[in-house]
């Protein structure tokens, strides 16, 4: 995946270097929410038409916004975190802005702090 030009999501075939543009609808919100520039993606075609876009099941993304921790926050509690891709996932209270986390792209869930 190269970038979003506002109308189309631009992909490049890493073998031929051909660029392919797909609409947000073709890619699907559940997939696009976890995509960042430069991410590997696989486009599946049928009769010359793109029918789906697959990204890795787990990705590491940066937390760009999340509420601060407050004294007394429950150990097992969760809070929302906006990721660099624009997706919002629930994370444990100890996660702070700027941290890298591993996310399940199928379930849209936090897995762990990236190592």
Offer a concise description of the structure.
The protein has 115 residues and is mainly beta. It has 2 helices and 10 strands, in the order E-E-E-H-H-E-E-E-E-E-E-E. The chain has 2 domains: 3-54, Beta Barrel (OB fold (Dihydrolipoamide Acetyltransferase, E2P)), CATH 2.40.50.140; 58-113, Beta Barrel (OB fold (Dihydrolipoamide Acetyltransferase, E2P)), CATH 2.40.50.
What do these coordinates show?
The relative contact order is 0.17. The chain has two domains: 3-54, Nucleic acid-binding proteins (OB fold (Dihydrolipoamide Acetyltransferase, E2P)), CATH 2.40.50.140; 58-113, Nucleic acid-binding proteins (OB fold (Dihydrolipoamide Acetyltransferase, E2P), Beta Barrel). The chain is mainly beta. It has a five-stranded antiparallel β-sheet, with no helix packed on it. It has a three-stranded antiparallel β-sheet with strand order 1-2-3. Strands 4-5 form a two-stranded antiparallel sheet. 7% of the residues lie in helices and 43% in strands.
Q: Which structural traits does this protein have?
A:
115 residues, mainly beta, OB fold (Dihydrolipoamide Acetyltransferase, E2P), 2 domains, 5-stranded antiparallel beta sheet, 3-stranded antiparallel beta sheet, 2 helices, 10 strands
Mean pLDDT: 92
Determine the fraction of residues in helical runs and give it as a percent range.
under 10%
- Residue share in β-strands: 35-45%
The largest pleated sheet is described as: 5 strands, antiparallel
Radius of gyration: 16 Å
Query: Which class do the helix and strand fractions yield?
Result: mainly beta
Main sheet: which strands, in order across?
8-7-6-9-10
Which architecture of the largest domain would the CATH scheme give at its second level? Beta Barrel
Q: Poorly predicted ranges (pLDDT <50, ≥5 residues)?
A: none
Fill in the CATH topology of the largest domain. OB fold (Dihydrolipoamide Acetyltransferase, E2P)
Taking the alpha carbons of the first and last residues, their distance comes to 24 Å
Write the H/E string, N to C: EEEHHEEEEEEE
Instruction: Please tally the helical runs, counting DSSP H or I stretches of 4 or more residues.
Output: 2
CATH homolog superfamily of the largest domain: Nucleic acid-binding proteins
């Amino acid at each position: 995946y190269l970038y979003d030009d506002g109308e189309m999501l631009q992909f490049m075939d890493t073998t031929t270097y051909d660029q392919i543009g797909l609409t947000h609808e073709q890619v699907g919100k559940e997939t696009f929410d976890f995509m960042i520039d430069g991410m590997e993606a696989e486009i599946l075609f049928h009769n010359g038409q793109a029918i789906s876009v697959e990204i890795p099941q787990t990705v590491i993304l940066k937390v760009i916004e999340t509420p601060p921790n407050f004294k007394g926050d429950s150990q097992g509690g969760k809070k929302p975190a906006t990721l660099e891709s624009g997706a919002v996932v629930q994370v444990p209270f100890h996660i702070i802005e700027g941290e890298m986390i591993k996310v399940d792209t199928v379930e849209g869930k936090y897995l762990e702090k990236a190592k």
